[in-house]
Amino acid sequence: MSKYIIQLNEEDVIELKGIAIDRDHKQAFEFLRKKILSQVEKKNKSRMNVEGKTHL
């Protein structure tokens, strides 16, 4: 299982706290999709590029 480090800037953290306070499920999903999933997909893509270029 892969592990990921997700980076959030101060504005992201403030937005996330606001979403939690408001319990806004739609906004929470959008935040996850835009901020978290995009980072995971970028890391997966870069991993695949690196793994595809290494040969024994």
Structural features, described:
It is a single chain. With 56 residues, the protein is mainly alpha-helical. The chain has one domain. The chain has two helices and no strands. It has helices at 10-22, 25-53. The longest helix is centred in the last third of the chain and has 29 residues, at 25-53. It is elongated and about 45 Å long.
The proportion of strand residues reads: under 5%
Order of helices and strands: HH
Distance between the termini: 23 Å
Q: Specify the structural class.
A: mainly alpha
Number of helices: 2
The low-confidence runs, each spanning 5 or more residues with pLDDT under 50, are: none
Write a brief caption for the model.
By secondary structure, this protein is mainly α. Helices cover 75% and strands 0% of the residues.
What's the structural blueprint in terms of helices and strands?
Layout: H1 10-22, H2 25-53
Helix pairs in contact: 1-2
Relevant terms:
2 helices, mainly alpha, single chain, 0% strand, 56 residues
